[in-house]
Design brief:
- It is built from ten helices and eleven strands.
- It has 296 residues and is of the alpha/beta class.
- The protein folds into two domains: 189 residues, Rossmann fold; 93 residues, 2-Layer Sandwich (Pantoate--beta-alanine Ligase, Chain: A,domain 2).
- A hairpin with a 2-residue loop joins strand 10 and strand 11.
- Helix 6 packs across helix 7.
Length: 296
Amino acid sequence: MHIISSPGAMQKRSQSWRRQGIRIGFVPTMGYLHAGHLSLVREARRRTGKKGKVVLSIYVNPTQFAPTEDLAKYPRDLNRDLQLCREAGVDTVFTPGDAEMYPGGRPQGPAHKDARPTGFSTYVVEEKLSQNMEGAARPTHFRGVTTVVAKLFNLVRPDVAVFGQKDFQQAAVIKRMVADLNFPIKIVIAPTLRERDGLAMSSRNKYLDAEQRAQAVILFHALQAVCAAVKKKSVSAARLKADLKEFFTAAPQARLDYVEFFDPGTLEPVTQVRSGTQMALAVFVGKTRLIDNAPL
């Protein structure tokens, strides 16, 4: 397994592979890997074949964090991540730093209103699918996501890139960016991996203490409850939202940030929820913000 931190070196390696006709699979991450990330690696390998190459990036991107968010304390353990990548059969791990990804000045960090690097001024902005849910709750988030993913695509030059379904809106935004900007990349959305009790795997689960971890499963239980409610009939979205506010009182550590019911293709909210509608929610458990979603 090779470890590369230089964008130029990563780009040269990818160009060499492509000249040889080698397919490249890519898994972008912010590190602190878990079994969900490793399932994306397996999918990338399946899509590229035995002769293909799988690249996994580890980079905590400052431009997708708001000033009040957890950029400084986001969990990091590069040695652990590299060992997991070796065991998973990753061919190359790309580990750039801020100075490499945002040349001209290091990002000013969470104290700045949008963590904008001082000498970097070109951003990629998706203007439709990114407006509600996470986009409304975190107004600068998707600009940072689309910008860094576009940069990573330009450096890794993958044939296929694999994202997790847990970040449903993010995946939809990336797919739209790829289509709109003519990136020759196949975007694959892999299923959400869950703990045995149903909690979606997330690097941020590390923040939870024992009591919060026990209560965090309410996200999964909320998805299950709504699935059961709409299994045989349509239900008003307003009624379901009101019911969920009451539902979350069963977990005192949990505070509902938002819940939305929407068309999975357009991400437009719906007023009547039925089988086939997508549900997404964000919940603060203690100070930790968790997201989840599911098709109903």
